[in-house]
Amino acid sequence: MLKKKHIKFFERLLPKDYIYSEPGDCWAYGYDNSKIHVMPECVLFAENKTQVQEIVKYCYLNNIPITSRGRGTGNTGGSVPIDNSIVLSLEKMNEVIEIDIENRLAIVQPGVINKTLQDSLKKINFFWGPDPSSLDYSTIGGNIANNSAGPRAIKYGTPRDNILGLEFVSGTGDLHKTGVKTSKGVVGLDLTRIFIGSEGVLGILTEATLKILPLNDSIKTIEITFDNIDDASQCIINLMTQPIAPYKLEFIDKESIKLINTIKKNHYDKNTNSAVLLEIDGQSEYIGFMLEKILKVIKENNHKRITIAEDTSEIDKLWAARKSLSPALRELGGYKINEDIVVPISKLKEFLKSLERISKKYNIKIVNFGHAGNGNIHVNLLFETEEEKKSENSKKCLDEIFNLVIKLEGTLSGEHGIGVIKKQYIKKEIDKNTLKLMQDIKKQFDPKNILNPNKSI
Ligand SMILES: Cc1cc2nc3c(=O)[nH]c(=O)nc-3n(C[C@H](O)[C@H](O)[C@H](O)COP(=O)(O)OP(=O)(O)OC[C@H]3O[C@@H](n4cnc5c(N)ncnc54)[C@H](O)[C@@H]3O)c2cc1C
Fold first, then answer.
1. Fold of the CATH domain 332-429
2. Ligand 1 neighbours by CB, cut-off 6 Å
3. pLDDT: is 70 or 330 the higher one?
4. What DSSP string describes 101-115?
5. Could you tell me which residues come within 8 angstroms of residue 112 by beta carbon, excluding any fewer than 6 positions away?
6. Whole-prediction pTM
7. Which of the following CATH numbers is that of domain 4-91: 3.40.50.720, 1.20.140.10, 3.30.43.10, 3.30.390.30?
8. Which residue, 29, 130, 422, 443, has fewest beta-carbon neighbours within 10 Å?
9. What is the reported pLDDT for 264?
10. Which of 35, 48, 76, 79 to mutate to test the pocket of ligand 1 (most atoms within 8 A of CB)?
């Protein structure tokens, strides 16, 4: 339990209802989507940067670990308060401070929900690129800390490609500003990029200057099905090597097709092996021409069926099939390991075929789907019982998958991050010297290791 004197300090700093210290209040702030739960020592809510600074300064002087938290939708335990941490929730810092379309930027506080920002931008025909599937609930702060993105990352990138500058409080309580408000700038080191994806271990984000873009007014959605993985992989490669950048390019494998067909009543034809869901965006004057061009590329590939959505209800139907996968997997039972692996697109075919071999070798059902245009595949290992999930067999299987990813020059996480869950695997990807350099950098930002200690690096 946090000492009474510490609580007393926080009570002097914050309004009474901005401090939770009773277990019943704190409980919900002890977990995220990793399902790990650790009871917080206490939960604090800050509503401005001065409060964040005062809290961190106090914790620095008193060696109190802090876990920063957006909305707790992360998948790897990043916002779970391990190591007797207090939780600092940024959810009340939820103001869109400025939208400046002439300079294509928006300035926001970290607790703004992604969807809230997108809704404000949509009214003036603009958008912010990153679109994680959790955008209805997750915060910009969490998106930045995890470099989170969704299907349109293939064309519009992740937070790393869509941020001009940041403001954050480091582990001593000092306030720092990084980046510029212009599309060019090369003064000093690029601390913005170091901070993005750092999973709350370098500082607590208090403000972000985001790069925003005008919205296109037209989207075309196409579903392509295949007899085998070779044809599907080749089609993905061919789509990526022609000049019309896909807006979204999703892949669905054989096991996913079976699963969708059970829920969506034979959405796919019998014997369909795999499918690709493709979207392009553009101005309505040109979209027809773009569609023609892209269909020519698709038709040059071996395929089973091409479906072009003609209206919003058909678009929704195609997406409903793809979107039914995550809930369907959840309903199959809780015994699942969900990885978000990335491989270079040119190696997708080898990767997917090797996964079939690994699945047979360990007798574990593996369901694969995801953002094929980025080579980012959600690899889901399914088990019948908790014992099977925790078994040696399952560990060896996962180990072999990770070794394969590294051999193919991919990365162990495209969007979920390392957090607590994947910490044991980071050394597979990052060599000893480089990892030490990262840990030394953390010491500069957070000399007493109070910010999200023992996570990520
Ligand atoms: C149904 C579902 C779908 C999802 N889909 C996607 C997807 O498509 N793509 C994707 O990338 N992810 C996805 N995720 C994962 C998750 O939503 C993202 O990682 C999201 O960005 C987390 O945001 P959050 O506000 O919930 O952050 P939290 O989970 O609260 O925190 C995440 C991390 O950010 C840190 N953090 C939070 N706020 C700050 C701050 N102000 N300063 C410093 N560090 C901070 C935390 O300490 C933690 O390490 C999904 C999750 C769910 C449950």
1. Alpha-Beta Plaits (3.30.70)
2. 32-33, 67-75, 78-79, 90, 110, 132-134, 138-139, 141-143, 145-146, 148-150, 199-200, 204-205, 415, 452
3. 70
4. TTTTEEEE-TT-BHH
5. 94, 95, 96, 139, 140
6. 0.96
7. 3.30.43.10
8. 443
9. 82
10. 79
